[in-house]
Design a protein that fits this description.
The longest helix is centred in the middle third of the chain and has 11 residues. The protein is built from three helices and three strands, in the order H-H-H-E-E-E. The chain is α+β, with helices and mostly antiparallel strands and 91 residues long. Strands 1-2-3 form a three-stranded antiparallel β-sheet. The chain is 29% helix and 12% strand.
């Protein structure tokens, strides 16, 4: 009988499986950025992002990108009042 070296399973390589799942759906912009950074070394990052785009995920970090209402957005704004210069006025 031969013995083999145990190799890690895919679940053991995925940051979303190794860390608290709440991190990928966090309210804090710094936590969201942490989740996005963890995704960068993930072996299935491209597949995760493609699947999220196809499903139009409503929110969270998928494949290293932040989704809101099924669309990728660059960053999460902190809670509070919107900036005055970001207000769009109707003509």
């Amino acid at each position: 009988m031969t013995t083999s070296v145990l190799e890690p399973t895919l679940d053991e390589l995925l940051p979303c499986r190794l860390n608290d799942a709440e991190l990928w759906f966090a309210e804090s912009p710094s936590d969201v950025e942490s989740a996005k950074a963890l995704c960068q070394a993930c072996p299935v990052q491209a597949l995760c992002l493609a699947g999220a785009l196809e499903r139009r995920e409503p929110w969270g970090v998928w494949g290293g990108e932040l989704f809101l209402a099924g669309v990728v957005i660059p960053r999460k704004r902190p809670r509070g009042r919107p900036r005055k210069d970001a207000t769009v006025t109707a003509a």
